[in-house]
Amino acid sequence: MNNDDFLEAYLKDRCDIVEDALQRYLPDEDSMPQELHTAVHYSVFSGGKRIRPILCLAALEACGGDIATGMPTACALELIHTYSLIHDDLPAMDNDDFRRGKPTCHKVFGEAIAILAGDALLTEAFVLLSQAQKVRFPAERRLAVIQEIAHAAGMAGMVGGQALDMLAETVEPDFTGLEQIHRRKTGALIEAAVKTGAILAGAGEEKIQAVCRYGTHVGLAFQIADDILNVEGDSALMGKNTGSDATRGKVTYPALLGLEQAKARLAEAVEAAIEAIAAFDSRALPLRVIARFIMERKS
Amino acid sequence: MNNDDFLEAYLKDRCDIVEDALQRYLPDEDSMPQELHTAVHYSVFSGGKRIRPILCLAALEACGGDIATGMPTACALELIHTYSLIHDDLPAMDNDDFRRGKPTCHKVFGEAIAILAGDALLTEAFVLLSQAQKVRFPAERRLAVIQEIAHAAGMAGMVGGQALDMLAETVEPDFTGLEQIHRRKTGALIEAAVKTGAILAGAGEEKIQAVCRYGTHVGLAFQIADDILNVEGDSALMGKNTGSDATRGKVTYPALLGLEQAKARLAEAVEAAIEAIAAFDSRALPLRVIARFIMERKS
């Protein structure tokens, strides 16, 4: 089996496992208003690639852990990612009508329910991370995971990044500003995904640091690839209009560096990610192929 | 010193302690965009009565704990309360222009920053609850606190209650529906406030249950009192227009029960709260006088 076949089978398998777990972990209909339940499920099960949970599980595996033990954390990461998409798409923010080829949450359920669905998913992530679990990790390790994820999601991470992104629409873009935005908006949660995987596996400080460096580079690669896809991707595959960043005058890597330079920067980031975990054994193979996948993905 | 003097001095003292702690715990300017920092501080320091943190500390004290150890939890409760006010006031939700006599967050900073300030505060609460603290409670106890608060804030609690409230504006109000909304929207976090205080103090199951019952009744009393103040309160003291619920056709206790019946229900709830902690010693005096204060407050 070559790397491409391995990757395809691996991602499919992991995606299915994560979908199953999300179905199990999300509260059932009786525990919340029907409309909110429908909106939450609509947004969570809308064809996401589950990259953050998959990265978390791959890091856990690379550090010698059992992936079954990481499912609540992996799913919490996806809930937080989904909440951030719902809120970012709102009229007051990016005002997007489509996401993955489907109308965005507020287009279907209205703004009030969309805001609340986002709030609910963010909060539910912490319910999931804190509740009694079949697999009993040391409580200190679970607190460390909660702290990492809360920090990545918060003012210094995703929320701060989205605020910078909003404010950047009114000022002249520059490279430092762009990196700041993306490190927080996309990078922080990706880094938290692999770091929490390593923490759950009980990895030592050196391994945790190596996985964090991998996460930083992969997060950057992911954002550059996204920007490039927005310029030259196939809008049918993407499920949204390509070229929308340029129309909106959004700060992107291709806009600032040119397309060729942006691609070179992407390749560098992927190499740096793989280099960061060079000392890991073959259990880190998934982390390595995922890094390449980010560069080559078509949607 | 009679009860009124004691109460006034007590609430003032606790309010000051909580304000100081909030100032210390909120991330500084360097860690987030200036505009977001300003919006967060504007909303957190806008004259809140700090009822939830004060209840948490009072329950901690009533169960024999040292209040200094409860400050991160007390402050996390206030951050979550503040986030919920910011999001509830948004144009897509209750569309309120004023809160405590000042323009609401979105009126000053715009909707995008208001949504993000709410998201930031909700997330920051979990940073605060999970981060390494000077006072080292057993990690299991800290996880239990996170779980209680996340559950109270989430789909089964505050978010679910606000969704019900939004949906209720389009259907005929009834009493069961009203109780459902308030138990989730206001009651859940107040109950979590006293319950987490008891958990932090290391109280036994019986005491925790008693404190929970106190919280349920006090939460109900708080909501009825709020509804009554909206009918007959002094708008200058309240910092918002009275009578706004009626104009909006909102489901309230006075609207459903009539004013006199609503007042009788309030008095019953306060008595039941005090009865729930009848077996506690004099360290529960603050819990007792706070219950009475809720009935008698003017704003």
Please characterize this protein's 3D structure.
The structure is a homodimer of 299-residue chains. Chain A has helices spanning 3-25, 34-44, 51-62, 71-89, 105-109, 111-130, 139-153, 158-168, 175-200, 205-232, 235-238, 244-247, 253-257, 259-276, 285-296; strands at residues 98-99, 102-103. The first copy, chain A, contains 15 helices and two strands. In chain A, helix 7 (139-153) runs antiparallel to helix 9. In chain A, a hairpin with a 2-residue loop joins strand 1 and strand 2 (102-103). In chain A, strands 1-2 form a two-stranded antiparallel sheet. Chain A has 299 residues and is an all-alpha fold. In chain A, 71% of the residues lie in helices and 1% in strands. Chain A has a single domain, classed as Farnesyl Diphosphate Synthase, CATH 1.10.600. The radius of gyration of chain A is 18 Å and the shape is globular. Chains A and B meet through helix 2, helix 6, helix 7 and helix 8 of A and helix 2, helix 6, helix 7 and helix 8 of B.
